[in-house]
Amino acid sequence: MGREKWNTLLIAFLLLTLTASIILHPKASLEASRGGLEVWWTIVFPSLLPFFIISELLIGFGVVRFAGVLLEPVMRPLFKVPGSGGFVWAMGIASGFPAGAKLTSRLRKEKQLTSIEAERLVSFTNCSSPLFMFAAVSVGIFKNPALGILLASAHYLSNLLVGILMRFHGSQTESKEEARVKKLPFPSFSEAFSALHETRLKNKKPIGKMLGDAVLGSVQTLLVIGGFIILFSVLTKILDIVGFSNMAAGILSQLFTIFSLPESLTKPLIAGIFEITQGNMETSKASAGLLSKVIMASFILGFSGLSVQAQVASILAETDIRFFPFFIARIMQGFLAAILTWLLWKPLYVNRGGVSLTYAPSQGTEGLEPFSLLFSSGPLITLFFLGLYIWLYWRKHGAY
What we know:
- Residues 43-135 form the Nucleoside transporter/FeoB GTPase Gate domain.
- The chain crosses the membrane at residues 6-25, 37-61, 121-141, 210-235, 241-261, 294-317, 323-345, 371-394.
- This is Sporulation integral membrane protein YlbJ.
- Pfam families: Gate (PF07670).
- The protein is 76% helix and 0% strand.
- By secondary structure, it is an all-alpha fold.
- It has one domain.
- The longest helix is centred in the first third of the chain and has 36 residues, at 26-61.
- It has helices at residues 3-24, 26-61, 63-79, 84-95, 99-109, 115-124, 130-141, 147-165, 176-179, 189-202, 207-241, 244-258, 266-274, 276-285, 290-303, 305-316, 324-350, 372-398.
- Helix 3 (63-79) packs across helix 10 (189-202), helix 5 (99-109) runs antiparallel to helix 6 and helix 7 runs antiparallel to helix 8.
């Protein structure tokens, strides 16, 4: 039997096994699914939707082309990508996963990036948002606000290093036309404005049509993201129930012993490989020193989890951008973030007065007040835009 047939048999077996496990453990599956849905409709959807819609409009009106011309002298030497990548990088940091992939895919469709440039760009423009690291991880999970600066510094510095390293990706296969560097010693506002004006004139859609398409495309992407979050929440729970997590942790414990790492962090690592939030929660509860737990949390944030990577893969599948370079970049960032966390532990945590405290449950929400409005109004925002999406979809496809 050929290799392709074996692959088909393996995929079918895994899917049947997962289906049977869900049927045999309906209560656990329902709880995991409900947890994933709650994260999506209270936090992910309302926090990402505005960025997605605004980004679509900025690209359509040519503002990204304007920023691209100005940022070309910076982005080309550092990352070997067009200046428009600076906009993608900034939006990726501000809004978190998987905004960078969404915008990179959009620019590739607009022919503003070559396939190699898109693979470089997507490798370092997908990262955790400040809201997630400061509010969710540092305060909500670790109950230690002082960790926010340390985690964010290690995360974004490792992200920068990955971008610099990935500039060498595809250099040998890149064509002469793709490798041509446009030399702009100083930003030219006149040329930038000309690019903006040219892009706006090429787009014949009225503003109402552009806004409607932006809402439709953004909500469709977020629906796919929600499906992945729920699926991997259930998958992680099922793997724990059937004993896969314990078996994998036993294998990893031998490796952890060699490198003098706490064996209690093996299960959190397994959980973090699949889902970033669950992995950080398990890490915070592990019986290990705070430094070891923060290093593990930093690795999980850099690797991003297979759930986030599956979201990115689904977005990139609409283009000719390959997923494998992105996957390699996530492994690189995971290790770089862990090393940087160890190096920055003393200057950014210990020297700033950080201490290992176990906060009381009543104190666990300290620092979350600025984000309480988002958490409380998130479901209402989600429901409103889902209703708007249904109406726009009906207007576009159902009305005659």
